[in-house]
């Protein structure tokens, strides 16, 4: 099994969610995140005082998938979240040792 | 005061009671939100509490001896500086025949209530300079001592027939000082006090390196809007009656604020590239502050000029704290001290009794309205006296309280936030699960 983690622009979340559903993904975890990559942050001015805001708001989407589905899921996320501009985010995949569904106690691919 | 028997005027009385209520609205909730939104999320509750507490402490003292110390009528000797605090202690003995607004048929207690709200907001204004770092007990002690030693005397000197009034030596030597609704008594007073107390307290940890962005700008806009609306009671109410002079004050308050808001936003647009919501809110307050002393003493053009100058100058003045390194957290100096001085001094150029304007007896027209330089000199002198009086006394009071109880919270409490350190509370529950449970319920 694999854990696919995507950091995306907040306004792309709905499209990514639909794309994942279309790709057969049954559930996901979404959380608010902040950070920066190559785009860096921005500046804000309050009563003439300039503040640099390094961390910009992002959304983190995490999906557990069976090994063969990982590349299709990654592909779905990338195509749904891409705008071509700096700040679009990143997607990565890591192997997962074990998964257990809390309600039933099922383990492995059954629990996905 | 009034030799004639008191005759109730219900129209004037209704207006003064209305004014008193909306002036109180300027402090709670107006200032509480205006300042509360500007601090960081870890100290918003403390800021709001400090404003509420200012109302509590000052309101209570006002009824006990504050009114008497400000407005009971003796004005000889020491009473040039403050009146007898015990004459109407607890308001006992105060009758409508010696009502402060008896001439307009407004009962004594209504006048007491109206003036109470002015004392409250003046003290509350200081909280902006000392955000995030003062102990609650020290603030309570400071409020009580400061309103007694600084506000009551200054209000007495300007409005109670004392040193800076039409009966005082400045009026004899130059002309009667004009402070219609509190440019010196409220704004220069609170601004200079904020500066003194901020200097004694020292900078917030991390200032000016660490970003201290306003945590909730809609709160700031809401607070500024409440201040704007309430200020009509402050300025037009200061006429003490529902009449044409009150109308003049109302119009000037309105138009000066409109212009000041636009002027502040335009200054930002040219300087920083964008006009901001904080700038709009700040411009509103700067205009309101500056028109306060001049409210009924200028015509519509005069009010627009005051608004324009205040909007631009205050927008520039909020940068002074970075240049000179004093941490006036929410710009009480840049807005209230500078705005108060702008309004007080511009009266010297713009004062007029035409177009429904009102000049107190013994006051001259302004330099640009054919009155020569006399009134300008008077205004500069009273502004300077108010700055020095408030700054010096506040500095002394601050040092005394610091020596006795200390002023500042522990560094760890400041870093963790005064909301939790002083009140044991957190303003915003932003996590779905905090992992706690009720330790012990209170049984009824």
TrEMBL record, chain A:
One of its GO terms (biological process) is regulation of nitrogen utilization. GO terms for molecular function: ATP binding; enzyme regulator activity. The modification O-UMP-tyrosine is found at residue 51. InterPro entries: N-reg_PII, N-reg_PII-like_a/b, N-reg_PII/ATP_PRibTrfase_C, N-reg_PII_urydylation_site. Keywords: Nucleotide-binding, Phosphoprotein, Transcription, Transcription regulation. GO terms for cellular component: cytosol. Pfam families: P-II. Signal peptide: none annotated. Homotrimer. This is Nitrogen regulatory protein P-II. The lineage of its organism: Bacteria, Bacillati, Actinomycetota, Actinomycetes, Micrococcales.
UniProtKB/TrEMBL annotation, chain B:
Keywords: Ammonia transport, Membrane, Transmembrane, Transmembrane helix, Transport. Its main location: membrane. Pfam families: Ammonium_transp. It comes from the Bacteria. The keyword ATP-binding does not apply. The keyword Membrane applies. Residues 14-428 form the Ammonium transporter AmtB-like domain. It is a multi-pass membrane protein. It is found in: Cell membrane; Membrane. The chain crosses the membrane at residues 14-36, 48-67, 106-127, 139-160, 180-201, 217-237, 249-266, 278-295, 301-320, 332-351, 376-401. Belongs to the ammonia transporter channel (TC 1.A.11.2) family. This is Ammonium transporter. It comes from Luteimicrobium album. The gene is amt.
